Each structure stands twice: as structure tokens, then as C-alpha cells.
Amino acid sequence: MSRKANLGWTMGLVLGLASIAMRPATAAPLTVGYSDWPGWDTWQIAIDKGWIKEAGIDLTFQWFDYSASMDAFSAGKLDADLMTNGDTLVTGAGGGKGIMIMLTDYSSGNDMIVAKPGIKSLKDLKGKKIGIEVGLVEHLLLLHGLQASGMKEKDVKLVNAKTNETPQVLASGQVSAIGAWQPISGQAMKGSPGAHPIYTSSQAPGLIYDVLAVSPASLNAHRADWMKLIGVWDRVVHYIADPATQDDAIKIMAGRVDMKPEDFKPLLQGTHLIDVAEGKKTFKKADGLTSLYGSSKIADDFNVANDVYKKAQDINSYIDPSLTNAQ
Amino acid sequence: MKTRWLQVLKPLSPRARRVLGSLSFVLPILLWAFVSYVPSVWHPQVLITKPGSVEYLEPGMRMDKDAFDDEVASAREDNKPPPEGYPSNPIYLPAPHEVAIALYTAFTTPPVSQDGQWLHQSLWHSIQIIFWGFVISSVIGVPLGVLCGTYGVFARLNEPFVEFFRYLPAPAFGALAVAILGIYDGPKITIIVIGTLFQQILIIANTTRKLDVGLVEAALTLGTKNAKLLTRVVIPGILPDLYRDQRILLGWAWTYLIVAELIGTTSGITWFITLQARYQHFANVYAAIIMIGIIGVGTDMILALLGRRFFPWDRSLEKSN
């Protein structure tokens, strides 16, 4: 190789390194992480329609794998992330505190325990094996269901499985039921004909709330922007609810995840979107699942009981209803 | 003249090379087609066309053959219409023609979302990640490898740790990389570097050690000094082998792409693959895998051709290609 070629190579490298190093230094819009969940694909409407810019907010949404988004948020690389209320406590316990300032939805059917044919209810699962990702939301759902039918966790055998792989786990015939959320739970039923949901989040509405969690620093510095974003969210929910615009809304959301609109529509029915008016009610302090406080308390107990983290979290410090209430 | 196929260390005729080369691709594809299109081979499931009287079935579902036979039998017993369907493979193994169609349509389908990307844009993004990961790894790994191979001091100082580190799973450093380098391309490139670098140092050090001792001794006899020995004897001596190592290592870097791109924002070809897999569009998944294969083999062929121009004296290059 000649000297000149060597030089060119080195120059190219230096320029390349420089360009990589400089990238994060350019302007800093607020950054929000979102991932594949019907209640969050909704934001694509605001993005595609330009409503965020229209509201005067300098903010971008970045698409993540769900757990990668929590990693990035914990590392302080995101201003906010869309998470479940339980997972907000988990990231917070690890040091990446997030303040829940608004609710996007609660799961009303999309999270489910799917059982093989012949098993009619959770009671039939006594002594049987269930494929579930231990410590995650479906585990919480299962415990809640067992409790409601007068059983304990000890009455069933949990087999730890990645939620993404539960369709294959159920199809293998080595477990009697699995726990998963849509679209994975749907694939599980498709892959094992006769398999059907025996317990879903529609029987425990509010057990899993989905929220926008903002880092305390960003909330402090950009409070007005976050307030405006809640206004944009209200517009999104009504755009989806309005029969006149619903088809367009579904088309945009389905496009985000490369699905056909008719396949996406049923997923939306298992997700109860929460507009600002309903959000205000959910932000009222109360025990039980109708309040974000009550629901988060249950999630906190679950997390401590399952050793997800050691110390109970101070729920109040994770919730700031004032931005939603000011709308 | 009769072609003799099995001759130890004898080059094959050009025609035989071409035939065998294409067979190496044709045979696996034929096997794939055989498994996909001949119903008596495997096909453990039934793809439902009509659900008949079975409530839970829908057209398009797949079920195990035994369960299907049971349902047909019980429907017949009750004098109800039995379900209908035809033998099929599990959804995880699409047929060749489905993948071929997906390979085409994946490129022609415009992104639906306004911030979405065309497939060729995603691919280009992935190629850039690999390129920079590999370049950065090489800038560190090649000089260090050559030094380790040449001088015992460098070898002892580096290799025990490198030996240890190469077993550590690169993706496990993802969260740390995000914390330091942000959510975009930085952490992805880092994972490629971590995955490639430590192998690179060891491989290149070994290649350097294999340099003909005679060359070094001759140079020493002629009074060559340390630095010159390195730049004029060692490096030119190992260059063709080093080049070949780099080709192999580039392939190595590609294998880290999928895990690397899941770190931080989901991007590149991985975005496409994970999304399609989640919704079980496996034809698209395989199409994307094949694209990666084509890009990898294509790059390697170009590099092999270039190698022959750079190092016309290297006979082992000709043998392998």
C-alpha cells in the first residue's frame, strides 16, 4: 500500500471520528422514547400531523425496544419515556427517577393469560405449569387473577419464559398456559388453535397504567413544554375517538408498526386511552385500581415481594398530577 | 479428458470450479424447496381453509396434524361439517418463493409513517454502523496485533487480558455504552468494536508470529534495525495474510449488527427484522437475512478481487478463490 493511500485512509478515519463525536452536540430538542404498544403507537398521529411543532414544542420521539428505552432513560439520555407505572418504579428504584405527569392508557384486555383448550378458568390451572416472564407485568396480572379466584402463587408452577417467545412455548405443549400482551398474545392464540384467554386485563382495569414519565430535571427546566404536550395528547385521543377521523388515525398507527389497519383495530379495543378529563380523575388519591396512586402501590408491593427491588418506593414522589390538572 | 474430482491439493479446472461454486448455493436452496413444496416431507401442521363446525378455528390458522385429525374425526362422528385444510410447515419456515417475493416488495413498499424509512435507507444505515465499527476496531486492533506478534513485551502485557475479555458478551455493555455515548449511533458502533477488537488483536498477533523466521534472520544478518525491521520486513511480510484476516473479521463484525442495533433507538435493518418477526411475517425476516448475506458475500468478493491486485505474489489467495 502506498503512503498516499495510507494518508487518505487516516484522513477519512479522523473525519469520521470527528463527525461521530460532533453529532450529539447539535441542538437539543426534548427527546421522548416510545415503543411498540398500541397505546403508544398513538403518538405517531401527533408526529405525522405535525401537532407537536404546531404546539410550539421542540421535541422528538425516538422509537425503541421497550427495555432499551428504559435503559436509555435510566442513563439520563432521554427526557421522558413511555412506561408502565410499575416499570417507572423499577427504573426509579435503580436511580433513573421519572415523574408520571400524564396517563396514556390502561390495558383493558390486551394483557392476557392464554390457556390451552380444555382449561376454562384460572382454577383449572391448579398444579399446572404456566409460561410467564417472572417479575414483569403479566406476572402481576396472573397473581391478581389468582387472588381473585381464591388461589395463591404456590398453587401453580411458573416457568420463566421471555414474553416474546411465549407463542412457541405454548405451542410446544409443555405448559398449560402463558401470559403475554398484544400482539404477542394474539400470535400465541393463532399458533395454538383452541387456545383462548382465561383472564385478561379487562378484568383488572387499572392494574397496568401506561404513563409518560419525565426526568425531574427536564420537568423542572421545561415545565411549560411538558404542559403543552399533554394538550397535544388530548387532541390525539379525541382524533382516535371521533368516528369521522378514526379510520385515518388507525391507518397512521398501523403504519408505525407496519400492520394492516384492519389487523390493528382490535388491538386498540384492548387499550383504554385516557384523555385529560379522565386523567384528572385517575390522578385523585385513592386506594385500589381506579387511582394511579392505588395501582402504583399494588405494583410497588409486587416489585418488593418479587425482589425486583428491595425497598418500597415513596409513590407520592413519583406522581405529579399538577400538569394534567392545569389543563 | 475425464475430470478427476478427488486429487489432493490439485487445483480444479475453471469449469469444475464454476459448477461446484454454483452447486454450493443450489443444493441448500433445493433442500429448502424440497422441504417446503413436497407435502410428505415434514409439514407437521395443517393450514385451515374452512373451519367447518369447529368453533375456535379460523381460516389462515395453523394447527398440529394430530389435533386436526381428531377434530375431523369427531366432526364426522357427530355428522357435522369437518374442518378443511392442507398440510403446511410452521410459520417460522416460509417457502422460497414467498421469501423471493418479500425480497422484492420489501424494497418497493414506501414507509407509511412520515418519519419512517425506506428499506434501502435502513440498510445503508446498518452498513455505516458496520463500517465505522470495523474501521475503529482496526485502527486499534491491527497495530496492536502486529506489535504483540512482533515483540514479546507487548504480547505479555496485552494478550492475557485480551484472552479474558474476548469471552465477555459484547451486548452486555450496551447500557453502559448508552450512558456514555447517548442513544444514537455511538453505542451501536461501540458494540461492534467490542465484539470485533479483541478477536482481531489475537488473530493478527498470531498471523504475525507465523511470519517466516528466515526473512527476519536474513534482515538481521544484513544489519536491519528494530523499527525498520518492523516496517520493512514484518509488515510487508504479513500483509497478504493480514488482509485475509481482515476480510474474515469484517464478517465477524456483521454478526454483532443485530444486537448492536437494538441498543439505543431501534434503527437500521434490525428495526425491520424485529418488527416483522414480532408480527410473524417470517418471509420478510428471511428476506432481510438474505440481504445481509448478499451484502456480506458481495463485499467479501470485491475485497478478494482487490486483494489479488494488491498482492499478486500471494499464491494462497488464488487457491482459496
What does this entry look like structurally?
- Chain A is α/β, with parallel strands linked by helices.
- Helices cover 46% and strands 17% of the residues of chain A.
- Chain A is built from 16 helices and eleven strands.
- Chain A has helices at residues 3-22, 38-41, 43-49, 51-54, 66-74, 85-93, 137-148, 166-171, 184-191, 216-221, 223-241, 243-256, 261-269, 276-282, 292-305, 322-325; strands at residues 30-34, 59-63, 80-84, 99-107, 111-115, 129-132, 157-160, 177-181, 196-200, 209-214, 271-273.
- In chain A, the strands form two sheets. Chain A has a six-stranded mixed sheet. A five-stranded mixed sheet of chain A has the order 7-6-8-5-9, sandwiched between helices.
- In chain A, helix 3 (43-49) packs across helix 12.
- The longest helix of chain A has 20 residues, at 3-22.
- Chain A starts with a helix and ends with a helix.
- Chain B is mainly alpha-helical and 321 residues long.
- Chain B folds into two domains: 45-88; 106-320, MetI-like fold.
- Chain B is 68% helix and 4% strand.
- Chain B has helices at residues 14-37, 65-77, 96-108, 119-150, 152-165, 174-181, 185-209, 213-221, 226-255, 257-261, 268-278, 282-310, 315-320; strands at 45-50, 62-64, 84-88.
- Chain A binds chain B through residues 1, 13, 16-17, 20, 23-24, 31, 33, 36, 44, 47-48, 62-65, 68, 71-72, 74-78, 117, 164, 183-184, 187, 190-194, 196, 251-252, 254-259, and chain B through 48, 56-57, 61-63, 67, 91, 111-116, 132, 135-136, 139, 174-175, 178-179, 181-186, 189, 239, 262-266, 271, 274-276, 278-280, 310.
